[in-house]
């Protein structure tokens, strides 16, 4: 085999690709967590609930990737879950999955701009507009990702699998309050998810209930602690 | 400028629609033209692309060729501003320039790219970055100009497929029919770029497309849209 690289590769300048980690001040850059999943499963509601719960203890920024430009960002603004300068909407040209997976440049820029405007941030939540079951985040964009489905979408979704369901760092099965109404069997969903995901965690949530976000918040806190400890 | 071995394949990487430099989120004015009832089929797409190619495409190709030649990118960036009256399109060009810069520095790291990034942290005009990126990739002014001219029509064609459900074969056929004109625009842009050394940036093409400027300003003000521009 012909090896034709006598000199070492030109040094990549990390800031050209992503925010430097650790930052010049020695702290780690913000942990970036992605939330993907089908339309209407509760991604924006999850992000909003996390912001409400964590905003007093953490410096948070949110980046949304909508199909229609600013819908999710405007929901978050309307409900004042964070000050407006902490929320940024990336325009995706009708293809959120491209902006979170194939060409992440606009998202990286949005995160850097938030960091510059209101940083230092501890946590950046990146929501993908609901797209399809195959949409996952690039590892170049987020450090961890949750895939949010809901029981109303049918209890077959975990069995169908797909990269979101089977590989996301956390699977959130939301709207458990609706299970009796739609005849969804949570045990079946849990069993199928286990079969698809092995040891990867699954949580069941109902954001209609007080503190329904707790299981997701616990996961985020654990990831953040691990991230900070790895500095 | 000499091209190095492998340089022509680098053009394929640079001009690939999947090059991660943000282009996928932009329609090049197609979304606004569709809404205005000016574009609804493949024939209209061809007219739209032809107009864009000979105006924005020519200007972009001239800037890219001059940048790939090694002319001062900051002077070219000013020349690009002077040729872009619409504030919305200026913002778009710089946003895309910043995204192109990120991708180019990952693909072909170079001091020239680092310097331009440091001088224009919010982004230089995209065709200028494209030209510097082309040079960093070992490509010459003709390839830089060709990539810019091609991009001026390929982005709109892709957007039309998404917006109108246009037959993708028809949209690709439009691009194929325009290819000779892309080559002609490339040649025209190169002749102008060659004059920059003696005459300065005023020698570069300054064709304008007023309707695209107006559509872009309208589009930027819409509360709900699919594409960023
Ligand atoms: N009943 C019920 N409704 C929910 C729950 N979570 C979210 N929703 C509602 O589901 C709808 C879609 O939620 P949204 O967060 O916008 O979904 P997204 O498209 O994934 O961002 C909204 O009307 C929410 O209020 C839940 O746990 N239970
Ligand atoms: Mg949403």
From TrEMBL, chain A:
<feature type="region of interest" description="Disordered">
    <location>
        <begin position="1"/>
        <end position="35"/>
    </location>
</feature>
<dbReference type="InterPro" id="IPR004400">
    <property type="entry name" value="UreG"/>
</dbReference>
<comment type="subunit">
    <text>Homodimer. UreD, UreF and UreG form a complex that acts as a GTP-hydrolysis-dependent molecular chaperone, activating the urease apoprotein by helping to assemble the nickel containing metallocenter of UreC. The UreE protein probably delivers the nickel.</text>
</comment>
<keyword id="KW-0547">Nucleotide-binding</keyword>
<dbReference type="InterPro" id="IPR003495">
    <property type="entry name" value="CobW/HypB/UreG_nucleotide-bd"/>
</dbReference>
<keyword id="KW-0143">Chaperone</keyword>
<keyword id="KW-0996">Nickel insertion</keyword>
<dbReference type="Pfam" id="PF02492">
    <property type="entry name" value="cobW"/>
</dbReference>
<keyword id="KW-0342">GTP-binding</keyword>
<dbReference type="InterPro" id="IPR027417">
    <property type="entry name" value="P-loop_NTPase"/>
</dbReference>
<protein>
    <recommendedName>
        <fullName>Urease accessory protein UreG</fullName>
    </recommendedName>
</protein>
<feature type="binding site">
    <location>
        <begin position="37"/>
        <end position="44"/>
    </location>
    <ligand>
        <name>GTP</name>
    </ligand>
</feature>
<comment type="similarity">
    <text>Belongs to the SIMIBI class G3E GTPase family. UreG subfamily.</text>
</comment>
<feature type="domain" description="CobW/HypB/UreG nucleotide-binding">
    <location>
        <begin position="33"/>
        <end position="203"/>
    </location>
</feature>
<keyword id="KW-0963">Cytoplasm</keyword>
<comment type="function">
    <text>Facilitates the functional incorporation of the urease nickel metallocenter. This process requires GTP hydrolysis, probably effectuated by UreG.</text>
</comment>
From TrEMBL, chain B:
<comment type="similarity">
    <text>Belongs to the UreF family.</text>
</comment>
<comment type="function">
    <text>Required for maturation of urease via the functional incorporation of the urease nickel metallocenter.</text>
</comment>
<dbReference type="InterPro" id="IPR002639">
    <property type="entry name" value="UreF"/>
</dbReference>
<keyword id="KW-0996">Nickel insertion</keyword>
<keyword id="KW-0963">Cytoplasm</keyword>
<dbReference type="InterPro" id="IPR038277">
    <property type="entry name" value="UreF_sf"/>
</dbReference>
<keyword id="KW-0143">Chaperone</keyword>
<comment type="subunit">
    <text>UreD, UreF and UreG form a complex that acts as a GTP-hydrolysis-dependent molecular chaperone, activating the urease apoprotein by helping to assemble the nickel containing metallocenter of UreC. The UreE protein probably delivers the nickel.</text>
</comment>
<protein>
    <recommendedName>
        <fullName>Urease accessory protein UreF</fullName>
    </recommendedName>
</protein>
<dbReference type="Pfam" id="PF01730">
    <property type="entry name" value="UreF"/>
</dbReference>
């Amino acid at each position: 085999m012909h090896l034709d690289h006598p000199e070492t590769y030109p040094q990549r300048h990390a800031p050209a690709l992503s925010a430097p980690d650790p930052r010049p001040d020695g702290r780690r850059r913000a942990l970036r967590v992605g939330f993907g999943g089908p339309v209407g499963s509760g991604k924006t509601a999850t992000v909003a609930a996390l912001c409400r719960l964590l905003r007093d203890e953490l410096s948070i920024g949110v980046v949304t990737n909508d199909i229609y430009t600013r819908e999710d960002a405007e929901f978050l603004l309307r409900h004042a879950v964070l000050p407006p300068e902490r929320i940024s909407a990336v325009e995706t040209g009708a293809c959120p999955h491209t902006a979170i997976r194939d060409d992440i440049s606009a998202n990286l820029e949005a995160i850097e701009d938030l960091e510059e405007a209101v940083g230092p941030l501890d946590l950046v939540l990146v929501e993908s507009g609901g797209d399809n079951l195959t949409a996952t985040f690039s590892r170049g964009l987020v450090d961890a990702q949750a895939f949010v489905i809901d029981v109303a979408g049918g209890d077959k979704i975990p069995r169908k699998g797909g990269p979101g369901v089977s590989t996301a760092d956390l699977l959130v099965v939301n709207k458990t309050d609706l299970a009796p109404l739609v005849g969804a069997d949570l045990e079946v969903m849990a069993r199928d998810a286990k079969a698809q995901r092995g040891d990867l965690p699954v949580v069941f949530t109902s954001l209609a209930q007080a503190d329904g976000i707790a299981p997701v918040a616990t996961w985020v806190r654990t990831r953040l602690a691990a991230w900070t400890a790895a500095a | 400028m000499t091209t190095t071995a492998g340089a022509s394949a680098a053009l394929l990487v640079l001009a690939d629609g999947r090059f991660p430099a943000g282009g996928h989120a932009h329609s090049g004015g197609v979304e606004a033209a569709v809404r205005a009832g000016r574009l609804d089929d493949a024939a209209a797409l061809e007219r739209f692309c032809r107009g864009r190619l000979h105006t924005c495409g020519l200007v972009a190709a001239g800037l890219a060729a001059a940048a790939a030649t090694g002319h001062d990118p900051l002077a070219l960036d000013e020349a690009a501003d002077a040729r872009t009256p619409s504030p919305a399109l200026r913002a778009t060009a710089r946003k895309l320039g910043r995204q192109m810069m990120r991708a180019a520095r990952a693909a072909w790291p170079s001091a020239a790219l680092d310097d331009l990034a440091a001088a224009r942290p919010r982004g230089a005009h995209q065709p200028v970055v494209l030209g510097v990126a082309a040079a960093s990739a070992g490509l010459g002014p003709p390839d830089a100009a060709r990539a810019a001219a091609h991009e001026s029509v390929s982005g709109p064609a892709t957007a039309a497929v998404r917006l109108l459900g246009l037959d993708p074969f028809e949209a690709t056929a439009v691009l194929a029919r325009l290819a000779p004109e892309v080559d002609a625009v490339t040649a025209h842009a190169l002749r102008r770029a060659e004059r920059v050394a003696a005459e300065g940036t005023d020698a570069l093409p300054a064709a304008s497309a007023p309707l695209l400027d107006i559509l872009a300003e309208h589009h930027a003000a819409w509360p709900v849209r699919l594409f960023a521009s």
